[in-house]
Amino acid sequence: MSEFTNRNIGLDLIRAMAIIMVLISHSRHILHADSFLLGDGMWRLSVCGFYGVELFFVLSGFLIGRILIKMLTSGNINNWANILLFLKEFWVRRWFRTIPLYILMFIVNYVLFFGGNSEHIHIPLWKYLLFWQNYDPVSLSFFPESWSLCVEEWFYVTIPITLTISYKYRKNVSFVIVSVILLVTFARIIYVLYVGSDNLMWDYQIRRNTFLRLDSLGIGMILACIFLQKKAFEIFSSKQALILGLCGILFNMFLFMNNREFVESIYAKTVLFNTTSISWGLVMCYAYNIKIEQKLGGG
Q: Cα–Cα distance between 201 and 211 in angstroms, integer?
């Protein structure tokens, strides 16, 4: 019973919501185009996939952020030996939770993808070992659902290293995380403007661009920092903050679903990810404080 009561029902609801949205989005691949529900508007279901993954990113950043901050502040990060020990401990914990299932699904996909083909299809599968498939559409076609895990895994590598090294000299986690968010956002804007918005595909070249998406998880980490400040978190988890978050979600949803060409806009290719992550973050903070009273029978 103690394990159940220690779970946060609000975060469980957020996790379930993200899963349901992703499933709804993927259902458009099996529904007929002439479905009486959506007809030729079947593409609108893709907004659920976008929102579901973004919510996962924020939630993951929040949970991982709490773990990292706790490990940093309770550890003795004052020499390189301790830094390496800290990183090793963190990576072992993370990779034992993600890599086994990843390998299992990799094998399942390999059997399904190559099992029925008599001809050998050349796909550089080694990129999956380095989580580099997001930068090769041919490789990603083998296991396309893995793109979001690439973002997560590279986040696990780059952010802890950045935090631990900077924490040794400047014990201000929030400053480092905000700097990372701004740097990634700025890099994405420069990338879009330099290459040209019309020359970039929103989904494959921006949304799935690993190092241009780390800011979404970073926003979750900032909320983890705020979580440690009780008065600040009360503001971010208030009803007013919830309304603001819902307004942001509905606004972006309207833009997304009202015009199929919306994803070709500069806004969609630059700061849409930030506004969506912040909006979901406010909803998540409110959900965190959801309490369900349990009446335990006693003898």
A: 16
The CB density around residue 7, as the number of other CB atoms within 10 Å, is 9
Q: Which of 43, 87, 47 is nearest to 67 (CA)?
A: 87
Nearest to 8, CA basis, from 50, 58, 59: 59
pTM for the model: 0.89
- Which of 228, 241, 218 has the alpha carbon at shortest distance from 60? 218
Nearest to 212 by CA among 161, 269, 278, 173: 269
Per residue in 12-61, pLDDT tens?
Answer: 999 999 999 998 887 776 665 555 555 566 778 888 999 999 999 999 99
Please give, one letter per residue, the 3-state secondary structure of 220-231.
HHHHHHHHCCHH
CB 94 within 8 A of CB 141: no
- For residue 118, which amino acid is it? S
Tokens 């972006």 belong to residue: 252
| 138 CB-near residues (< 8 Å, 6+ apart) | 123, 124
3-state class percentages of the chain: helix first, strand second, coil last, to nearest 5 = 80, 0, 20
What is the rounded CA–CA span in Å between residue 152 and residue 217?
8
> Mind listing the pLDDT tens digit for each residue in 74-111?
766 767 777 888 888 889 988 998 999 999 988 888 88
Rounded Cα–Cα distance for residues 299 and 193 (Å): 68
Distance of CA 245 to the CA centre of its chain: 17
Element (H, E) at 194: helix 173-195
Which of 22, 16, 28 lies closest to 49 in space, CA to CA?
22
